[in-house]
């Protein structure tokens, strides 16, 4: 696994926080300075916390741990899906459905319904009118959009990996209720205290998100490769 470089994070703008009036006081340990009304994040802290998270992720991966990547903001969607796919893990990149974790039994029923609708030659389509088949197809498309990243998730994840904890508050709350560890990129407007493994960085920068998610996916793949050998 290639180590992330200080210069790469700096070049990606990882150090740019929000304007000072939007800061969360609990974020203070990660702030290097204030410049032109903007908080500057300490990249040394970014790197330290990223590899603390990586150590945890790899320990979980060694025990066949499964991870759920979450990133529904525009800047994160493609990256999160790509990196989750690359390391064969699950993802949510569309709207987070309330109960995805806390009501997982119902979500599993919905996924079972989707699998039935997607099954080639499924009996569900037999003896149906044209209008009824159209309705079933619409239902299939809707469920596919909702569950495409978690369709094969048979159980609750061992950890949740989040881009922008301040946006994904429902995911954070659900994971917290269930005691599922959270790894999250946190910007200066975010309270990092509910996050077990916060990674302080600019969560609006596409390049920063890419760098961090790439390291995390590589960490999971490194463990998988060692197991295969």
From TrEMBL:
One of the record's GO molecular function terms: structural constituent of ribosome
InterPro entries associated with the record: Ribosomal_uS2 (IPR001865), Ribosomal_uS2_bac/mit/plastid (IPR005706), Ribosomal_uS2_CS (IPR018130), Ribosomal_uS2_flav_dom_sf (IPR023591)
PROSITE patterns xref list: RIBOSOMAL_S2_1 (PS00962), RIBOSOMAL_S2_2 (PS00963)
UniProt-listed GO biological process terms: translation
Alphabetical keyword list: Ribonucleoprotein, Ribosomal protein
A cellular component term, taken from the record's GO annotations: mitochondrial small ribosomal subunit
Keyword Ribonucleoprotein: yes
Keyword Nucleotidyltransferase: no
CDD domains per record: RPS2
UniProt-listed Pfam families: Ribosomal_S2
Family the UniProt entry places it in: Belongs to the universal ribosomal protein uS2 family.
PANTHER family per the UniProt record, alphabetical: 30S RIBOSOMAL PROTEIN S2 PROKARYOTIC AND ORGANELLAR, SMALL RIBOSOMAL SUBUNIT PROTEIN US2M
Protein name as it appears in the record: 30S ribosomal protein S2
């Amino acid at each position: 696994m290639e180590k992330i470089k200080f210069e790469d994070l700096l070049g990606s703008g990882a150090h740019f926080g929000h304007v000072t009036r939007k800061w969360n006081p609990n974020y203070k340990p990660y702030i290097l300075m204030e410049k032109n009304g903007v908080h500057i994040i300490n990249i040394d802290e970014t790197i330290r916390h990223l590899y603390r998270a990586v150590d945890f992720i790899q320990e979980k991966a060694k025990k066949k741990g499964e991870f759920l990547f979450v990133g529904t903001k525009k800047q994160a969607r493609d990256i999160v899906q790509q990196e989750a796919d690359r390391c064969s893990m699950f993802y949510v990149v569309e709207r987070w459905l309330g109960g995805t974790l806390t009501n997982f039994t119902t979500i599993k029923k919905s996924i079972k319904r989707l699998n039935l609708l997607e099954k080639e030659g499924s009996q569900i389509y037999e003896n149906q009118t044209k209008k009824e088949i159209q309705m079933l197809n619409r239902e299939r498309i809707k469920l596919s959009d909702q569950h495409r990243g978690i369709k094969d998730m048979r159980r609750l994840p061992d950890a949740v990996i989040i881009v922008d904890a301040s946006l994904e508050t429902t995911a954070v709350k659900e994971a917290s209720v269930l005691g599922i560890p959270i790894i999250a990129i946190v910007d200066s407007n975010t309270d990092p205290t509910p996050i077990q493994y916060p990674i302080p960085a600019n969560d609006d920068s596409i390049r920063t998100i890419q760098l961090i998610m790439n390291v995390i996916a590589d960490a999971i793949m490194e463990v998988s490769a060692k197991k295969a050998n």
